[in-house]
Amino acid sequence: MKSNYLKIGCNTVELVEETLKLNNIEGKILYVAEPIVDGIYGSVVREQIQKVGILKTELVKHNTISYAMSIAERIIATDVSCIVGMGGGKVLDVCKYASYISKTPYLAIPTTVANDGIASPIAVLKRQDNKPKSLGCTMASMMLVDTNIILSSPEILIKAGVGDTISNYMALLDWEYAALSGKDEINGYAYLMSKSSIDALLKTQYQQICPDFIKVLINSLILSGIAMDFAGSSRPVSGSEHLFSHALDYYSTKKNLHGLQVALGTVSMLKLIGHDCDDVVDYLKKFEVDVNPRTLEIDEETFVYCMQNARQMRTNRYTYLNDADLSTERLKSIYKELVELL
Ligand SMILES: [Zn+2]
Description:
The chain is α/β, with parallel strands linked by helices. The chain has helices at residues 16-22, 35-50, 65-77, 89-102, 147-151, 155-180, 188-202, 211-231, 240-251, 258-272, 278-286, 300-309, 328-341, and strands at 5-9, 28-33, 54-59, 80-87, 106-110, 122-126, 132-136, 142-146.
């Protein structure tokens, strides 16, 4: 199943029928959505599906690996020909994995853009112990991104999307570092796409979150997803800052949005390696993306512990963390700088 159909713009949610027909979908179509999202936009999507095939509905309540597998089993056992998933990252990841396991075409309709998972070949689902696990899969074969729907989503989710794109900045530095150290190789095409994604965002003419800026952000997040697909891994968009965020997910009791955590990780890592972080910090402030550790309720002890244990989260990903000074004293001083700076 190749990913070959993408439309971004106003009211693209009205293109479900057209998209399914263009992709020769018929028969049973499984519509999967969060109950709240279904209550707002569901009727528009369900009516269109009924014009193309037989509507089956699944309202998602959780995002565990076993739940995604059970949906895949239902698809295989009942000969479902296509999944239409609508919602935020949790629903889309459940659908993405179920589509991958059952080898079924998948139309994704994101209602939020809090991270680059909207178009990536990776699904983050929960294990039985409730910890998140990243699973390799395939991108949605069809995608409709409605900018009106995204604009009406909570602003903090849009800011988290900005944060996840900002993380490409550090991820690319880590990738270059790993290549220079002889621990990895750069895929030039994937590198270029990730670089274009972050450049488009950093150089945008917009000064605040507005409809045109949302388009830039969506383009950047999708480019990040395609960069992962090209590289065959998350390497182009995920370096030490993501390892830090994974450590927070694992060890911290306070849960924050992924995009905010990786943006904090980016500034923390830039400080740790003595790299200029003015551009990144100015940008986050311009769009009022608050990643101050105090706001995120990450105390000094948790920050130090997660920075020191971040590289254990993925030992085969070589980053600046492998050789940096991770002494408690140094990290405590960085924490103080971050509290004042951000
Ligand atoms: Zn990310």
